[in-house]
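tool_call predict_complex ligand=glycine
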Amino acid sequence: MKHHLKLLSLTLISVLFLTCGGSKTEFETSPTSGKTAVANNGMVVTAHPEATKVGMDILKQGGNAVDAMVGVHFALAVVYPSAGNLGGGGFMMYRKNDGELFSLDFREKAPGNAYEDMYLDENGDVIPGESLYGQKASGVPGSVDGMLKAHEKFGSLPLATLIEPSIKLAKKGFRITSKQARNYNYFKDDFIKNNRNPKKVTLIKEGQWEEGDLLVQKDLAETLERIKQNGRSGFYQGKTAELIVAEMNAGNGIITLEDLENYNSAWRTPITGNFRGYKVYSMAPSSSGGIALVQLLKLSEHFPLSEYGSKTAKTVHLMTEMERRVYADRAEHLGDSDFWDVPVKALLDDDYIAERVAQIDPSKATDSGEVRAMELDNIVEGEETTHYSIVDNMGNAISLTTTINSAYGSKVFVEGAGFLMNNEMDDFSAKPGVPNVYGLLGGAANSIQPEKRMLSAMTPTIIEKDGQLFMVVGTPGGSTIITSVYQTILNVIDHGMTMSEAVSEKRVHHQWKPDWISIEKGAFDDAVRAELEAMGHVIKERSSIGRVDAILVRPDGSLEGAADPRGDDWAMGIE
Ligand code: GLY
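tool_result ok
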């Protein structure tokens, strides 16, 4: 009962927020549509209401979760260009209703001509911005290959049916939200600086963008049309591929036609772990997300966090101590498993986890300078991204996170093709000891090599309870992805929150180095802050952390979709 009352109050809050907030989108809130949605026969939660609607319409036409995923992915490339993409990559976790799990790694790859020192100058120093801006920042995109591969194996509706809504959105346009208007205006100078012909960049407007403006993307519509007509070769060969390579050659890019033709996404065995009786499935390398999340959850099992409370000094201190150790391991040991022997078993080993727990002082912060990654001798065996969650009426579930790395990727639009290229090369370690844009460190495990995938933090996750689907969860947020997913899970399982409460709850984050706790404004009160500081923690307030879009199966079997209030994210369900 308490559970339902809490949910109702949250629903009312979201109705008030959206109607009084002056949203000019046509998306009205109702019990099955909004920041919180509850329904029995399917649920879609994405970063944008238009993309959510595309997924929902596909489910209503009888499509399954994978069909909806493909539709949503292409729709996000149109209506959410800061992260939705054709020019990026990502990870899919798929749980079939019979309990079988599949995960697909469609992360970008380093081009064939990439090399370890490619972002260093003659003195061996990292050239500022070169892995972030411009043509040279891009890896070979994987999204289109990933979507088509998943559709070929699991899709039920024709590809054309799934892409057509996105073509329409690109050709006829859609009304942008106020957040998007602000965002496009903010990045205008970056778009101008990084594109040879700004007049052709659809996100650049003479004057200022305003909420409700129509965004039409004709070149993008044609690219989507080529994919619809020719499948994989509509992107990796022919006109689109030639336009990508021409764009590379117009600057200092190194992606070739051969790189595009050779790109292949890869099926991976998911990382699995148990947490307080729940079974957790998450992404294997080339993402660090699954290993780091399961390490965090296994560490957490050693502490009665539910008894300590959600944002108490004791809980935040323990989470921080766990996080600094997990991120130290990440920096040293994680990289693309096709190129680097990732010690998965050792990192998740119960004795190793217990060793880490024993290093934690319950009342004093550890100096990150003193925290080392796991010693290899002990091994037994050789911010901008977007996430969406989908469950169909048969109980198939998709958890998918995709990215072009930072907002609007390299800021380079492929001229004539209308889409943005990623700046994922920055996720490699350009030089040991030099942090990337998220402050993350790395070494040999994540060094640049031709055709290697750069290490990711994306953590699309699916959780089971008693062998049944329980939660579908994930988020954008660069290095904070892992800790945001971790906290969302704790919020539900340890702290008894509804899905919407768990998603809305303020977040905190620590990543070993830099050695401070990042917090969202209002994450905890002054007394908690003082207690943490007395233990030796440094605390820094920052802008919002993550945009979690998640679905929970409630005890009565209904689905609670939760769209993060920090963005335009939207949940919709089928009654
Ligand atoms: N580009 C962010 C990540 O993959 O973690």
